[in-house]
Design a protein that fits this description.
By secondary structure, the chain is an all-beta fold. The chain has a single domain (2-126), classed as Sandwich (Immunoglobulin-like), CATH 2.60.40.1470. It has strands at residues 2-6, 9-23, 26-39, 45-56, 61-67, 75-76, 81-90, 94-105, 111-122. The mean pLDDT is 95. It comes from Kordia algicida OT-1. Pfam families: DUF525 (PF04379). One of its GO terms (biological process) is error-free translesion synthesis.
Length: 128
């Protein structure tokens, strides 16, 4: 498990390899990830949007920006957490992701970023 804390918001990431499949005459490698966002601060916060950089071993980078996470903009009071699952497709059996969440502190009304640590995506058969 990969973890990082930014401004009292703890991000924990667990990954899984989901399998391979062919699409448009090309092999794809499917990965899942579960993220837990835990509010360890004294203030209530809301996740408003996300920014991802997705890398594969073939040097391609995909940038993904969007509102919330899986259609939600969770509000986290002190001590609360939000867990969700998502996934991505890579063109190679090894890759990585990193990014950040844009959040709002309800006490100060200030916006801030919470960094998502770089986490590796690897198919078990690709590692020695």
């Amino acid at each position: 498990m990969i973890q990082q804390v930014t401004r009292g918001i703890k991000i924990s990431v667990e990954t899984s390899f989901e399998g391979t499949f062919f699409k448009n005459y090309k092999m794809h490698f499917a990965f899942g990830y579960q993220i837990t966002i835990e509010n360890q601060s004294k203030d209530s916060v809301q996740l408003t949007s996300r920014h991802w950089q997705i890398f594969d071993a073939l040097n391609s980078v995909e940038i993904v920006d969007g509102e919330g996470v899986i259609g939600k903009k969770p509000v986290l009071k002190p001590g609360e957490s939000h867990t969700y699952q998502s996934g991505c497709l890579l063109s190679s059996p090894i890759g990585a992701m990193r990014g950040h969440y844009n959040m709002v502190n309800f006490t100060t009304t200030k916006k801030f970023r919470v960094f998502i640590p770089t986490f590796k995506l690897s198919a078990p058969f690709a590692l020695n």
